[in-house]
Design goal:
Blueprint (H helix, E strand, L loop, with lengths): L23 H4 L32 H28 L4 H11 L12 H10 L5 H14 L5 H14 L3 H14 L5 H13 L3 H8 L11 H13 L3 H13 L6 H13 L3 H13 L6 H13 L3 H13 L6 H13 L3 H13 L6 H14 L2 H14 L11 H13 L3 H13 L6 H13 L3 H14 L5 H12 L6 H11 L1 H11 L5 H14 L2 H17 L3 H13 L7 E3 L3 E5 L5 H20 L7 E5 L12 H12 L4 E2 L6 E5 H18 L1
Parallel strand pairs: 2-3
Antiparallel strand pairs: 1-2, 3-5, 4-5
InterPro entries: PPR_rpt, PROP1-like_PPR_dom, Smr_dom, TPR-like_helical_dom_sf
Protein name: Smr domain-containing protein
Family: Belongs to the PPR family. P subfamily.
C-alpha cells in the first residue's frame, strides 16, 4: 500500500523531505510494504531554477497564497474582459456577449461583477468607438453589484473627455438626470475639463455655475479649469475674480492654477500681474514646476523684459528643473525679440548640443535678429544648420522665403553684394519667387555699393513679377537716392517716379535750385500729411539727407519746418533754467545737421534779443550705430563740430552727449558772426 504521507496536501520539492516528527500514520507503516517513491523529476523543459515548496494548508501563508492565486485569476479575467470590450463593435449585442462571457451570470458558482470590477474594465478598455464604453456602462449598471452609480458614470465621462466627445458627455449627463444619479464634485470637474478640452469655454463656465444647484463646491482643480475657460473665452475679469474668490476661500495654490492665471495676465497685457502671481506662489511655499516656469518665461518674453527672463532661467536651473524644448523656445523668442544676440546664440548652441529639433519659425526669428544686429558669421552658421537639419521626411526646418529674406537683408545691410546675390540665386533654385522685402533689401545693397545700374535692373523685376511697390520700398529708393552721385541721380529718380508720382515730383522740386522754398514746403506738407505714420519720419530723414548732400540747406530747413509743424519730430529742442538741449537721436545725418543749423540760428537770435543763455548747452546724439549711417551719429557729429570749431565736447559721464557752457557758446557765436561779416 502506498504511504499515507503521499495523501497529504503538499507541493513537491526538488530535495527529499523527511519530517522531523513522524505522524502516527507513518509509525504504522509495515516494513513489508514497498518503500515510498521519490517524487518524479521535473519535466526537461521546466525551469531548473524554480523551487517547489511544501506549504502547510493550516498556515497563514497558505491562506495568503490562495488569495494571491485568486487575485491573479481576477486580474487576468478583468484584463480579458477589457480586451474583449475593446474589440467589440459599438452595438449592444456583441458588448453584452463579451461581458457575459467574462462575468457569467447563469452559474451559481460565479459572483456577479463588483463595482471595482466595473471600474477597472471601464477604465482600462479602449474601444474603437466611444459608444461602446457607454453601452458597457449600461450593462454593468444592470448586472454588477454597484453601490455608488456616480463612480461608474465619472469613469465613462473621463473616457469621453479623453476622446473629446462633448455631445456624448452631455447625453450621458441627461441619462444621469433621468436615472436619478446625483453628480458629485468629480462629475463636474470632469465635465468642465471636457468642455475646455473640446474648445468650448462658454460651456465650461455654464457647468461651473450649475454646481451650487447640486450642492457641490469647487475644488482647486475645478477652479483652475474654469479660470482657464474664462481666459480662453476672453473674459479675463471673471477669471481673475474667480481666482480672488479661490484665494479668499483659502484654497491652496497649486502650479496648475498659477500657470493659468499667469497666462491670463500675459494675454491681457498685464505683465506686472503675471510676475506678481509668480512671486506670490513662491511666497506661499508652492514650488513652481516646469509648466509654470515656461509660462512666466513666455510672458516676460512678450513683455520685452529679457533681463527678467535671464533671472528666471537662472532660478529654474538652480532649482534643479530640467528645461524642455518649450523652455528653450521661450528663451529664444525672448532674446531674439529684444535683440540680445549673445544670449540668443548661447541658447541656440545649447539646443544644438542637446540635439533638440528647431522648426522654421524659431530659425527665422534667429536669422531676423542676426540681420538686424549684423551677426554675419552667426547667421551663416544658423542658415547652414537649418539646411542640414531639413530632410525629405521632416521639412519643418526647411528654409522658406522669410529665411532667404533675412539673409538678403543681412548682406544688404553690410554691403555684401556677392553674398546677397548668392542667396537670391539659391532662393530661385529652391523655387521661391523673390518678394518685395527681398527686392527692397537687394536694391538697398546695390545702392550702398554705388551700383546704380543694378538698382534700376532690380527695379525692373517688380514689373516682371507683378509686384506693386509700397511706401516702405519708396523709402528705400529715397535712401538710395540720398547716397547716389549727382550724375546718376536721375536714374534713381526715374524709379521713384514710377513707384510714386507724387513723391517723384517732390524729389524733382528738391533737386531744382530754382524751385522756391515755399512751393517745396507745400508739396512736402501735402505728401507727408497723407502718408502712413510709420513712413513719415523715414521720408523726412531721407529727403533732408538728399538736400544736405546736394548742398541745399535752405531746402532742408524748409523740410524740417514742415516736419515740426506736422509733429513728425517731437521734443527736438528742450529748455530748462539750467540747460538748453538739442535731441537728435533717431535722426539721419542730414536731418541732424539741418536741426543743428536751425538750433544755432535760434541761439544767435536769442542772443540778439538780449536773452540770457542757461549755464549749459547740450546736444544729445545717442550712442551706438545709426540705421542711416555705418558710423554712429555721435562719431559723425564729433567730426562736424570740430570742423565748425564749435566748443562742444563729449561729456565723460553722459554717453552720447556733447556739452558746452553758455560763456563758450556766446564767444563762439560772436566770433562766427564777425567772421561772416568780414567775409561779406
Amino acid at each position: 500500500m502506498a504511504s499515507s504521507l503521499l495523501s497529504w496536501p503538499h507541493r513537491p520539492i526538488s530535495l527529499t523531505f523527511q519530517p522531523k516528527n513522524p505522524s502516527p500514520a507513518t509509525a504504522r507503516v509495515s516494513v513489508h510494504d514497498p518503500p515510498p517513491q521519490d517524487p518524479p523529476p521535473p519535466p526537461p523543459d521546466s525551469n531548473p531554477k524554480s523551487r517547489y515548496l511544501w506549504v502547510n494548508p493550516n498556515s497563514a501563508r497558505a491562506a495568503g497564497l490562495a488569495k494571491a492565486r485568486a487575485a491573479s485569476s481576477r486580474r487576468a479575467r478583468l484584463a480579458a474582459a477589457a480586451a474583449a470590450l475593446a474589440a467589440c463593435e459599438p452595438e449592444e449585442s456583441p458588448i453584452a456577449a463579451a461581458l457575459e462571457a467574462a462575468f457569467p451570470t447563469d452559474n451559481q458558482q460565479h459572483q456577479p461583477p463588483s463595482e471595482q470590477d466595473a471600474v477597472i474594465v471601464l477604465n482600462t478598455a479602449a474601444p474603437r468607438a466611444a459608444e461602446a464604453i457607454v453601452l458597457a456602462l449600461r450593462w454593468f449598471l444592470r448586472n454588477a453589484e454597484v453601490r455608488n452609480e456616480v463612480i461608474l458614470y465619472n469613469v465613462v465621462l473621463k473616457a469621453l473627455r479623453k476622446r473629446r466627445r462633448w455631445a456624448d458627455a452631455e447625453a450621458l449627463w441627461e441619462e444621469m438626470m433621468r436615472e436619478g444619479v446625483r453628480p458629485d464634485n468629480a462629475t463636474f470637474s470632469t465635465v468642465i475639463s471636457c468642455a475646455r478640452a473640446c474648445g468650448m469655454p462658454a460651456k465650461a463656465v455654464e457647468w461651473f455655475e450649475k454646481m451650487p444647484e447640486f450642492g457641490c463646491s469647487p475644488d482647486m482643480l475645478t477652479y483652475s479649469a474654469v479660470i482657464d475657460a474664462y481666459g480662453r473665452a476672453g473674459d479675463a475679469e471673471s477669471a481673475l475674480r474667480l481666482y480672488d474668490r479661490a484665494r479668499a476661500e483659502k484654497c491652496p495654490l497649486d502650479p496648475v492654477i498659477c500657470a493659468t492665471v499667469i497666462r491670463i495676465h500675459a494675454t491681457s497685457g498685464n505683465f506686472d500681474g503675471a510676475l506678481n502671481v509668480f512671486e506670490e506662489m513662491k511666497a506661499a511655499g508652492v514650488k513652481p514646476n516646469l509648466v509654470v516656469y515656461n509660462t512666466v518665461l513666455d510672458a516676460m518674453g512678450r513683455a520685452m523684459r529679457p533681463w527678467v527672463v535671464k533671472t528666471i532661467h537662472r532660478e529654474l536651473i538652480t532649482q534643479g528643473v530640467k528645461p524642455s524644448k518649450a523652455t528653450y523656445s521661450c528663451l529664444l523668442q525672448a532674446y531674439t525679440r529684444a535683440r540680445y544676440g549673445e544670449d540668443a546664440m548661447a541658447v541656440y548652441r545649447t539646443i544644438k548640443d542637446e540635439s533638440i529639433h528647431i522648426d522654421v519659425i524659431l530659425y527665422n526669428m534667429l536669422l531676423s535678429m542676426c540681420a538686424d544686429i549684423g551677426y554675419v558669421d552667426e547667421a551663416e552658421e544658423i542658415f547652414r544648420d537649418m539646411k542640414a537639419s531639413s530632410t525629405m521626411d521632416d521639412a519643418s526646418s526647411k528654409p522658406d522665403s522669410w529665411s532667404y529674406s533675412s539673409m538678403v537683408t543681412l548682406y544688404s545691410c553690410t554691403g555684401d553684394v556677392v553674398g546677397a546675390e548668392g542667396i537670391l540665386n539659391e532662393m530661385v533654385e529652391a523655387r521661391f519667387k523673390p518678394n518685395i522685402f527681398i527686392l527692397t533689401s537687394l536694391i538697398r545693397c546695390y545702392g550702398k555699393a554705388g551700383r546704380t545700374d543694378d538698382v534700376v535692373r532690380s527695379f525692373a523685376m517688380f514689373e516682371e513679377l507683378g509686384i506693386t511697390p509700397d511706401d516702405r520700398f519708396c523709402g528705400c529708393l529715397l535712401t538710395v537716392a540720398a547716397g547716389t552721385p549727382e550724375k546718376d541721380l536721375h536714374k534713381v529718380i526715374g524709379c521713384i517716379e514710377r513707384s510714386n508720382s507724387q513723391l517723384g515730383a517732390l524729389v524733382n522740386l528738391l533737386i531744382d535750385p530754382a524751385a522756391p522754398s515755399d512751393r517745396l514746403g507745400d508739396a512736402a506738407a501735402e505728401l507727408l500729411g497723407a502718408a502712413r505714420g510709420v513712413v513719415k519720419m523715414p521720408y523726412c530723414n531721407c529727403l533732408m539727407d538728399l538736400a544736405v548732400n546736394l548742398g541745399r540747406m535752405e531746402s532742408a530747413c524748409a523740410l524740417l519746418g514742415v516736419a515740426l509743424r506736422l509733429g513728425i519730430y517731437a521734443n527736438v529742442q528742450t529748455r530748462t533754467q539750467t540747460q538748453w538741449s538739442l535731441h537728435l537721436r533717431g535722426l539721419s545725418v542730414g536731418a541732424a545737421l539741418t536741426t543743428l543749423h536751425v538750433w544755432m540760428a535760434d541761439l544767435d537770435a536769442a542772443m540778439r534779443r538780449g536773452e540770457e543763455l542757461p549755464p549749459l548747452l547740450g546736444i544729445h546724439t545717442g550712442q551706438g550705430k545709426n540705421m542711416y549711417t555705418d558710423r554712429g551719429l555721435a562719431a559723425v557729429f564729433e567730426a562736424h563740430l570740430k570742423e565748425l570749431d564749435a566748443p562742444f565736447h563729449e561729456a565723460p559721464d553722459k554717453a552720447g552727449w556733447f556739452l558746452t557752457t553758455s560763456v563758450a557758446a556766446r564767444h563762439w557765436l560772436e566770433t562766427k558772426k564777425s567772421e561772416e561779416l568780414v567775409a561779406a
